[in-house]
Design goal:
This protein is of the alpha+beta class and 239 residues long. The protein is built from four helices and ten strands. The protein is globular and about 50 Å long.
């Protein structure tokens, strides 16, 4: 399968508190319904992954799609996100499905995409929304309220402690999807979803799916919060 991306995208730059940049592109794919059909056909192969905090199943995208997405990202977004060269890239379909009560502590928080990054490298991420129901939520961005050491310990605890132990140690973190600010994290902006909208941002910024009404979530790719998520490890332009 090959992807057909808009060859002349209109790129909107949004700037949140602290100078956080998010680039928003509507009509990213020329034939977006092809990918909803692809998801509906192949979703039985999707699986939840244990190595990340995503609250639902994921499906790796074919190499042909990943190559086209990477080429398009390199042409239109890489330099805007501080990259000089793309070292690695991958993409996957994803659909948030977990009920709030089934979330793990690491899913009660936002996260950063920064694993396996070496000095002189940075990670950029993209999300392509493939659903019509705006009530399923877009993407929210956050800034830590406390110092880096305390924030890192909170994130570590959320990944290593069982729910009861985490709640006992951090009673100021509420279970469920993170929607607003809390004692640890300040919400600095939200990008609303739109069918065939792609957003791209620095993966080092705290972010999460902005799921306000979890009752809308579905396991049906034609009705649920279907996205294609891209990850790009870049050689920093400042190196």
């Amino acid at each position: 399968m090959t992807a057909l991306f808009n060859p002349a995208p209109r790129i909107e730059r949004r700037v949140f508190e602290g100078g956080v940049e998010v680039f928003v592109i509507d009509d990213a794919l020329l034939e977006p319904t092809r990918f909803v059909d692809f998801a509906a056909e192949h979703w039985p192969l999707a699986r939840e992954k244990g190595h990340n905090a995503f609250p639902g199943a994921e499906l790796p995208m074919p190499d042909a799609f990943n190559d086209r997405l990477t080429d398009w990202f390199n042409e239109h977004l890489r330099r805007r996100l501080g990259g000089r060269r793309t070292l690695r890239a991958h993409s996957r379909m994803a659909m948030a499905t977990r009920a709030p009560g089934a979330l793990e502590p690491r899913q009660w928080l936002c996260h950063r995409d920064r694993d396996h990054v070496h000095p002189g490298e940075r990670v950029a991420a993209s999300v392509l929304y493939l659903f019509d129901d705006v009530g399923l939520g877009g993407t929210a961005f956050y800034a830590p309220k406390r110092d880096a050491q305390a924030t890192a310990l909170l994130v570590h605890d959320s990944s290593t402690l069982e729910a009861a132990a985490f709640r006992a140690k951090h009673p100021d973190v509420a279970p469920g999807y993170l929607v607003d600010s809390n004692d640890w994290l300040e919400r600095i902006g939200v990008v609303e979803p739109r069918f065939n909208r792609l957003i791209a941002y620095d993966g080092d910024v705290f972010h999460t799916s902005h799921i306000v009404d979890a009752a809308r979530l579905s396991t049906d790719p034609r009705r649920g919060r279907l996205t294609i998520n891209g990850f790009f490890t870049l050689r920093s332009a400042t190196v």
